[in-house]
Design a protein that fits this description.
Elements (H helix, E strand, L loop, with lengths): L5 E3 L4 E2 L2 E2 L6 E3 L2 H30 L2 H22 L6 H8 L3 H4 L1 H19 L1 H22 L11 H18 L2
Antiparallel strand pairs: 1-4, 2-3
């Protein structure tokens, strides 16, 4: 239920009913909820993928495992593009090919991510590797949002985000203690 509630700074309503007033309140928002659920699913798949990739690397080699991950992704996306009407429009392909260079480097970053995660899981364990990944992801995301980098809208880093980051660091410390 907590995932289904959007945090806002004013007294609001949920489907026409006030949940809480005052300093912090919650509001039901489908435009926010569905992407959050998708992000949650992606987040749940990430450690599964990391463990599977590490397992594959231990059975073969890190380079072969990384190649296999991306080769199967190319096949899966190639098949997906056959069924997406938007992929058949020439203007979409022109726009893709004329995108800024940083926007075109996602595939190379994907190779690096796959390689680095697969190499970190075996020596660190899944929880420690994922903790390091999450802290780095949130830190990087905060910088990207704050400065509006890579085509993002600016979302300034305020005291509530700083408090959340402090709790994340405290949680990371607890998870990484030996």
């Amino acid at each position: 239920m907590a995932l289904a509630l959007a945090l806002t700074g004013h007294g609001t309503t949920m489907l026409g009913h006030t949940i809480a007033g005052g300093f912090m309140s919650f509001r039901w928002n489908w435009d926010w909820l569905l992407p959050l659920l998708g992000a949650g699913l992606a987040g749940a798949l990430m450690p599964v993928q990391g463990a599977a990739n590490s397992w594959l690397a231990r059975r073969s080699s890190l380079a072969l495992a990384t190649f296999w991950v991306h080769a199967t992704a190319v096949v899966a996306m190639g098949l997906t593009l056959l069924f997406l009407p938007s992929a058949r429009h020439l203007p979409a392909w022109r726009a893709l090919l004329h995108s800024p260079l940083p926007a075109l480097l996602g595939g190379l970053m994907g190779v690096a991510i796959t390689w680095l995660v697969a190499s970190a899981v075996a020596p660190l364990g899944m929880v420690a590797a994922t903790t390091g990944i999450l802290v780095a992801q949130v830190t990087t995301a905060a910088v990207l949002d704050h400065f509006g980098l890579l085509g993002l809208d600016r979302a300034p880093f305020d005291w509530t985000k700083a408090a959340g980051a402090a709790l994340l660091v405290a949680g990371a410390w607890l998870l990484l203690r030996r």
